[in-house]
Design goal:
- The chain contains six helices and eight strands.
- By secondary structure, the chain is an alpha+beta fold.
Length: 169
C-alpha cells in the first residue's frame, strides 16, 4: 500500500516559482539552440519584462537557479517593456472563425488597430473589450496571437505569458 500524501507539505508558492524557472530556462535554452550557442559558453544577461510585482518576486527567488541552468551572468527585470520590446498582435483565426463567422473582417480590423497599451492589458487581464462593427465584444487571450519582435543583438521568445530576451553579443 502506498502512503497517503500529506497536503500540509505541499508548498504551492515554491511550485509556482519552480514553474517560472522551468519556463524561463526552457525559453533561454531554445534561443541558445536556435542560434547554436552551446550552454558552456557564458552569456552576459537575460531580460524578462514583468508587469506584476508578485511574478517579479517569484522569478527573483529562483534567479540563481535560472542563471546556473542557462549559464547567464545576470537576469534583468524590466517593468515597462514598451521602449525595449515591440509586441505585435494578430487575430487567431482558429478561435475567432467559429465565434464571428461573417463579421470576421471587422474583428481583424479591430485587432489590427490595438495599441501597445491594449496588448499589455490583454496579457495582464486575459481579455479585452473592443468595438466590432458598432457592438462591444470581449476578446479572450487565446483569440489573439501576441509575438515579440527581436531587438538587434537580442533574441526574444515568449511562452505561457512570459517573454525573455537573451543578449547574444
Amino acid at each position: 500500500a502506498f502512503p497517503v500524501q500529506d497536503e500540509s507539505f505541499i508548498d504551492k508558492s515554491l511550485e509556482r516559482k519552480m514553474e517560472m524557472a522551468q519556463i524561463i530556462s526552457s525559453l533561454v535554452l531554445s534561443l541558445r539552440k536556435k542560434e547554436m550557442i552551446k550552454v558552456r559558453q557564458p552569456l552576459q544577461r537575460v531580460m524578462v519584462p514583468v508587469l506584476d510585482p508578485s511574478v517579479k518576486e517569484q522569478i527573483l527567488a529562483v534567479a540563481d537557479l535560472i542563471k546556473s541552468e542557462v549559464n547567464v551572468k545576470e537576469i534583468e527585470m524590466i517593468d515597462d517593456a514598451s521602449g525595449i520590446l515591440v509586441k505585435n498582435i494578430k487575430p487567431n483565426f482558429r478561435t475567432l472563425g467559429p465565434k464571428f463567422g461573417k463579421d470576421m473582417k471587422h474583428v481583424v480590423s479591430a485587432v489590427n488597430k490595438l495599441e501597445p497599451a491594449d496588448i499589455t492589458a490583454i496579457e495582464r487581464d486575459g481579455e479585452i473589450n473592443i468595438e466590432v462593427n458598432g457592438k462591444m465584444t470581449t476578446l479572450q487571450l487565446d483569440d489573439v496571437e501576441i509575438t515579440s519582435q527581436d531587438i538587434e543583438g537580442w533574441l526574444v521568445a515568449s511562452n505561457a505569458g512570459l517573454t525573455v530576451a537573451l543578449d547574444v553579443t
